[in-house]
Amino acid sequence: MKKIFLSFMIVFSLFIITGCQTNKKNNDEKVPFNLKKITGKVRKASLNDDGYIVINKSEVTQKVSYYNYIYEDVQIGLLTVKDSSGNVRIVINTCQSCGGAPYAYFVQVGNKIQCQNCGNMFSIDDLGNLEEDGCNPITIEDLTDEGDIIKIGVKQLEDLKDKFKDWKGPKVK
Question: How many whole angstroms separate alpha carbon 89 and alpha carbon 125?
Fold first, then answer.
């Protein structure tokens, strides 16, 4: 009986020591255990003459793509995708609650997106209509649909710069 108990304690101790939910990189950074692969194109956001980010709707598909606005050497992520009705959905690619954590970004899992930090999932059809101050992607406040293009103001993004300083989300190379 003592041998079984001792064996159990050894296995349990190893489990606790190695961690059950995270992997560690060489620099002791905690990485979520079930990190999903980033799929989709990553583009540098372009500004028009008025200083708005411009996204061509023709580039947005039902597969997530990413646009990164670079402000003071920090890449601030946007996530774009078409919903089940063909409407373009665009959100800021960090979690409102997890924002600031390196893995607080979203990847597509079927018809949902998932935060790589907390694991919460959201329907693509709900993007842009989610709870304010919840544990979900951030809705863009200054977004204008102009037919073939969508214009996005940059002030809100610049105000969120600190949430992206250590961000490990999809980046423009």
Answer: 8
Same domain, yes or no, for 22 and 69?
Answer: no
Residue-level pLDDT at 57: 97
Same domain, 75 and 141: yes
Q: Cα 164 to the chain's mean position, in Å? A: 10
SS3 112: strand
Least confident of 39-43, 53-57, 72-76, 154-158: 39-43
Burial of 12 (0-12, 13-18, 19+ CB in 10 A): exposed
Chain centre to alpha carbon of residue 22: 18
What is the model's pTM?
0.80
The CA distance from 34 to 163, in Å, is 22
SS3 2: helix
Could you identify the residue written with the tokens 């947005």? 60
